[in-house]
UniProtKB/TrEMBL annotation:
<dbReference type="GO" id="GO:0004497">
    <property type="term" value="F:monooxygenase activity"/>
</dbReference>
<dbReference type="Pfam" id="PF00067">
    <property type="entry name" value="p450"/>
</dbReference>
<dbReference type="InterPro" id="IPR036396">
    <property type="entry name" value="Cyt_P450_sf"/>
</dbReference>
<dbReference type="InterPro" id="IPR002397">
    <property type="entry name" value="Cyt_P450_B"/>
</dbReference>
<dbReference type="GO" id="GO:0005506">
    <property type="term" value="F:iron ion binding"/>
</dbReference>
<feature type="region of interest" description="Disordered">
    <location>
        <begin position="1"/>
        <end position="22"/>
    </location>
</feature>
<feature type="compositionally biased region" description="Basic and acidic residues">
    <location>
        <begin position="1"/>
        <end position="19"/>
    </location>
</feature>
<protein>
    <submittedName>
        <fullName>Cytochrome P450</fullName>
    </submittedName>
</protein>
<dbReference type="GO" id="GO:0020037">
    <property type="term" value="F:heme binding"/>
</dbReference>
<dbReference type="InterPro" id="IPR001128">
    <property type="entry name" value="Cyt_P450"/>
</dbReference>
<comment type="similarity">
    <text>Belongs to the cytochrome P450 family.</text>
</comment>
<dbReference type="GO" id="GO:0016705">
    <property type="term" value="F:oxidoreductase activity, acting on paired donors, with incorporation or reduction of molecular oxygen"/>
</dbReference>
Length: 356
């Protein structure tokens, strides 16, 4: 670790928390002396950063991302992943997931507390992770427990203890996957078995906070795909991304110098009224398109089509079967500055509105 990395201060914003009582403030870009970085939160500024070839992804502490590939290798990785995520292949995984999600949803009990994260999101995402990465199903729960450490460090990269257990888990995970596209091996397993349940927990928390919206989707579940785009905007998982300037550049009037660190507050940019007219409302008829929840530009998430397919396939049976869902207990949150989501989502499920 370099001295520059050690100086990195952990951002502590909470105005972009999904359960925050007030919406985030969209500020013009500024240099934060304490964080030692430029902070971008306007949609237009974050989008410009995504598109700029002189702003390269870095880790949260400013060092290069672990095993950051050179450009040729990265482009090869993207092409190889896209080929592995062909429509035909996505359709095969969707079939597996649909039958598992339908069966599991039918087994959920009515009118008693159920933790949606533990009972629905985690098992279904693990099924998908095993199918996609071709992991041995008998190793699934051990791999999932290793992946938990890696995902926790991605969410909270400033905690050295979490980082150390992630490193050990990562080393073991790397040795467990040998076939298929690089992005669909150990890192794909972590993203699918752990990060995806976090993404679903955020989306479901947002829907549960808007019971009328849940009911609208119950009545018209075919709208789930459209609603999911707006849920990604409104309740997307990733809060921050990090860049470093490799040359001097003027970014929408911000004079970046070579070596400068830049923090992209993407969850805040997704609530910018200049881009989304009613940013703090969920409105899948008029909003959602153009969100930055999975990045944008040359580094946009290469697993985006897989994530969307999975999020829709897992959520739709819940919307179809249950006309009314209530949070019944305390929602516990986990994660950190990079992503944060409900660790538990205790709910009571009803097929129709209960008569009290
Ligand atoms: C589960 C939820 C996921 C979330 C929230 C997520 C989010 C993101 C975001 C925001 C970026 C942009 C990073 C940047 O601009 O610096 C990204 C990039 C990336 N994602 Fe995902 N992702 C997810 C799942 C996956 C999966 C399943 C895969 C496996 C294919 C994947 C592979 C990648 C890769 C390889 C990149 C880097 C692309 C590049 O630099 O060219 N992601 N992801």
């Amino acid at each position: 670790m370099t001295s520059r990395q050690e100086e990195c201060v952990r951002p502590s914003w909470s105005d972009d928390h999904l359960d925050s009582s007030s919406p985030p403030e969209i500020k013009a870009s500024y240099f934060d002396e304490k964080l030692g970085a430029w902070v971008l939160s306007r949609y237009a500024d974050v989008l410009a950063a995504f598109r700029s070839p002189v702003l390269v992804p870095t880790g949260a502490k400013g060092g290069s991302k672990k095993a950051a590939p050179n450009e040729t290798i990265r482009l090869k990785m993207r092409a190889e992943t896209k080929a592995a995520l062909s429509l035909r292949q996505l359709y095969k995984w969707q079939k597996i997931l649909t039958s598992e999600a339908d069966a599991l949803t039918q087994r959920l009990p009515l009118g008693v507390p159920v933790n949606l994260v533990e009972k629905v999101a985690r098992p279904l995402c693990l099924t998908l992770a095993v199918a996609v990465t071709k992991a041995d199903p008998k190793d699934a729960s051990h791999l999932q427990s290793l992946a938990r450490h890696v995902s926790a460090a991605a969410a909270e990269p400033y905690d050295t203890k979490i980082g150390a257990s992630a490193e050990a888990a990562n080393a073991e995970l790397r040795g467990c996957f040998h076939a298929g596209a690089e992005a669909l091996r150990d890192s794909g397993f972590v993203a699918l078995s752990h990060t995806l349940p976090c993404l679903l927990a955020n989306a479901w928390f947002a829907l549960l906070a808007h019971p009328q919206q849940w009911r609208r989707l119950h009545q018209r579940p075919a709208l789930t795909a459209k609603a999911m785009e707006e849920l990604l905007r409104y309740a997307g998982l990733t809060r921050l991304l990090f860049r470093r300037a490799i040359e001097d550049v003027d970014l929408n009037g911000v004079p970046l110098r070579k070596g400068d660190r830049v923090i992209l507050r993407i969850a805040v940019a997704n609530k910018d009224p200049e881009r989304f007219p009613r940013p703090n409302e969920m409105d899948w008829v008029h909003q959602g398109k153009g969100h930055l929840a999975l990045g944008s530009g040359p580094h946009t998430c290469v697993g985006g089509s897989l994530i969307r397919m999975a999020a829709i396939t897992i959520t739709r049976p819940l919307l179809e079967r249950f006309g009314w869902v209530e949070i019944t207990g305390t929602v516990e949150w986990h994660g950190g500055p990079v992503f944060r989501s409900p660790a538990t989502l205790p709910v009571c499920l009803y097929e129709t509105i209960p008569v009290i």
